[in-house]
Design goal:
Elements (H helix, E strand, L loop, with lengths): L1 H23 L3 H22 L6 H39 L5
Helix pairs in contact: 1-2, 1-3
């Protein structure tokens, strides 16, 4: 069943790619949606990983997939930073002033 684990890694990478594309389009609702998909897949992978292991030849593929996911994540964070800062600024402006 190690292929099932690889399928999870590939699905997480796919969602990560879609999240990056959404961030590049400044479609933050889609970013959040794909982030949720990733979270569910990661939790499912953790559960499967408790009882299954990758074959030695699959470990290098897993490493390449993880590197691509981390690169996507870094790009998403860079793209999202101005959006997050704007949310913070909007939240600051919405707070009532205490006197």
């Amino acid at each position: 069943m190690p292929q099932v684990l690889m399928d999870y890694y590939k699905a997480i990478e796919d969602s990560s790619r879609k999240m990056l594309a959404a961030a590049q389009s400044e479609d933050w609702e889609q970013v959040v949606r794909f982030e949720g998909v990733c979270a569910v897949l990661i939790e499912q992978l953790r559960m499967k990983g408790r009882t299954e292991e990758l074959l030695p030849e699959q470990r290098s593929e897993k490493t390449r997939i993880m590197q691509r996911i981390l690169l996507n994540d870094a790009q998403i964070r860079t793209l999202a930073e101005p959006w997050v800062m704007q949310l913070d600024a909007d939240a600051e402006g919405a707070r009532p002033l205490l006197h």
